[in-house]
Amino acid sequence: MKTPQAYKALRWFASLSMMVLVLFATTGCTKNMIVLDPKGPIAEQQRDLMLISTILCAVVIVPVLILTAVIVWRYRDKKGRKAKYKPNWEHSTKLEIIWWGIPIIIIIALGVITVKGTYALEPSKPLKSDVKPITIQVTSLDWKWLFQYPEQGIASVNYVQFPENVPIRFEITADSPMNSFWIPQLGGQMYAMSGMAMTLHLQADEKGEYMGSGANFTGREFAKMYFTANATSQEAFDQWVSEVKTSSPALTLDGYKELAKPAASDVRMFSAFPKGLFEMTVTKYASSHNHGLSWKDINKIQLEE
C-alpha cells in the first residue's frame, strides 16, 4: 500500500513531467529549430550570443531550482524531526556573498557580452568581405513581399535569390502596416516601416533554400506572408536573372498599385520595374527617420531619374 509521501512524490513527478512537455511543445523543440541552425555569419554570431547568455543564466537558475527542491524535501515536516530550532537566526555573511556575488558577476559578464555583440551585429554595418555586395530592396505589402534588384533591373514577389558567400544589402521599407523582415537561418529580423528605409546586411555561407517570413501580425492574411530565400552559385544566380528578364512581364506603376492592394499572392517575377519605385515608396509617407539610407541618397536617386 502506498504511503501519503509516495502519493505526494508521484503527483510532484507528474506535474514536473507535464510542465516539461508543455515547455517543449510551446517552444517548438519537437521540430527543427532553424534559429539554432545558422547558415550565415550573422546568424552564427547571434546563435553563439544566445547560447552563451543561456549558459550564464543557467549557472544561477539551475542551482537555485535544484536547491529549492532539496530544501523543500530536506526540511519538510515529518514525524521524529529533531532539527535545531533557531527563530532568531537572520544573517550569514558567507551566504550573502555567495547568493549576491555570483549573480552580480554573471550580470556584469552578460552586460559586457551583450554590448560587444550589439555593436558587432549592428544591422546597418556592412559585412567585411572582398566580394562586392548585392543590393536587394524589400517592400512589405499587404500580404506579400516585393523584392527589387536595382542593379539587375528585375523584381520578384515572395521569392528572393542571391549568390552564396556574397554580402547582401537589404534596404527595407513598407507600403502597408509595419511588419518585420526575417530569414531565421541568415540573421535576426528587421522592421519594415512605411516612410522609413532600414538597412540589413546578411550573407549565406552555403547553398540552400531558407524560410523567410513576416514576424509581425498585420491582419487577416498575415500567416501567408512568407517567402523563399534561395542561395545559389553565382552562375545559377546570373542564369535566373537572365531567365526573368526574358520570360517575365514588366511591373508597371499601375501594376504596382494593383499589387499593393490587400491580398495574398503567389510567387511572381518581373523583368523590369519603374525606376525609383522603392525611393518613391519611402518618400510618399514624408518621414524624416531613415536608418542606413539617407535623404541625400534618396534625393540623389530621384534626381537621376
From TrEMBL:
InterPro entries: CcO_II, CcO_II-like_C, COX_ARM, Cupredoxin, CuRO_UO_II, Cyt_c_oxidase_su2_TM_dom, Cyt_c_oxidase_su2_TM_sf, Cyt_o_ubiquinol_oxidase_su2. GO terms for biological process: ATP synthesis coupled electron transport. It is found in: Cell membrane. It catalyses: 2 a quinol + O2 = 2 a quinone + 2 H2O. One of its GO terms (molecular function) is cytochrome bo3 ubiquinol oxidase activity. One of its GO terms (cellular component) is plasma membrane. Its EC number is 1.10.3.-. The chain crosses the membrane at residues 12-34, 49-76, 97-119. Residues 27-125 form the Cytochrome oxidase subunit II transmembrane region profile domain. It comes from the Bacteria. It is a multi-pass membrane protein. Keywords: Cell membrane, Electron transport, Lipoprotein, Membrane, Oxidoreductase, Palmitate, Respiratory chain, Signal, Transmembrane, Transmembrane helix, Transport. Pfam families: COX2_TM, COX_ARM. Residues 131-243 form the Cytochrome oxidase subunit II copper A binding domain. Catalyzes quinol oxidation with the concomitant reduction of oxygen to water. Subunit II transfers the electrons from a quinol to the binuclear center of the catalytic subunit I. Belongs to the cytochrome c oxidase subunit 2 family. PANTHER family: CYTOCHROME BO(3) UBIQUINOL OXIDASE SUBUNIT 2 (PTHR22888:SF18), CYTOCHROME C OXIDASE, SUBUNIT II (PTHR22888). This is Quinol oxidase subunit 2.
